[in-house]
Amino acid sequence: MITTELERAGIPTVQVCTMTPVAEMVGSNRIVTGSGIVHPLGNAEAAPEEEHTVRRRILESALKSLTQPGGSRRSGHPE
User: Fold this and answer.
1) Of 23, 39, 49, 78, which sees the most CB atoms within 10 A?
2) Residue 2 and residue 8: Cα distance in Å, rounded?
3) What percent of the chain has pLDDT over 70?
4) DSSP string, 19-65
5) Residue 18 predicted with pLDDT over 80
6) What is the DSSP letter of 5?
7) pLDDT value for 54
8) Quick count: other Cβ atoms within 10 Å of Cβ 58?
C-alpha cells in the first residue's frame, strides 16, 4: 500500500476509504472513513451546500488525523 511506503519514507499520510478493515489489513497508519463506496469523499446526490459540508468534514477529520502519531488509527468523519 502506498500509504505504508510513504510513512516509511517519513511522509505522514491519511487514507480516506470506506473499506477500513482492508486498509487496516494492508497496514495503513491513519484511516478516515469516507461517506460511501462510490463517492468516498462526498455525496453526489446531495444538494451542493450539503455536499460541501460533507467534504469539509471528511477533510477536517483527515487533517486532524495527520496531527496524531501513526499507528493503525481509524477515524470516522463527524455526521
Assistant:
1) 23
2) 10
3) 87
4) -HHHHHHTT-SEEEE-S-SS-TT--TTS-HHHHHHHHHHHHHHHHHH
5) yes
6) H
7) 92
8) 21
Cell 467534504, residue located: 55
Residue pair 70/29 in contact (Cβ under 8 Å)? The answer is yes
Contact yes or no for 31/8 (Cβ under 8 A)? no
pLDDT of residue 76: 63
What gap in Å lies between CA 24 and CA 18, rounded to an integer? 11
End-to-end CA distance of the chain: 28
Q: Which amino acid is at 32?
A: V
Considering only CA atoms, which of 75, 72, 65, 76 is closest in space to residue 26? 72
DSSP state of 68: S
- The model's pLDDT over 22-52, given as tens digits with 9 standing for 90+, comes to 988 988 889 999 988 888 888 888 999 999 9
